[in-house]
C-alpha cells in the first residue's frame, strides 16, 4: 500500500471513531452491548492501523538511514610517508654485514 493510502485510511478511521458516541475511554467500563462491541472492534482496528503505520514509518526511516550510510564513502587511509631504512655495510672478518636502522 502506498503511504498516502495508509494515511487516508488512518485519518478516516480516526474521524470515524471520534464521531461515534461512546468512543471515550470512560465508556469502556460499561456492559458490552452490540453497539459498544462494535465501538471496541473499531478501536482495535484503529489501533492495528496505527501500529501498522508506525511500523511502516520506522522501516522507511531505517531505509533512509541505510541509504545515507551507503552514500557516505569510507575515507581512505592517508598516505603517510615512510622513511627508508638506512643500511650500512660493515666489514666483519672475510665478509660484510648489513646493519639497518
Automatic annotation (TrEMBL):
It comes from the Bacteria. Keywords: Signal. Residues 85-101 have a biased composition (Polar residues). The keyword Signal applies. Residues 63-101 are annotated as: Disordered. Residues 1-18 form the signal peptide. This is Uncharacterized protein.
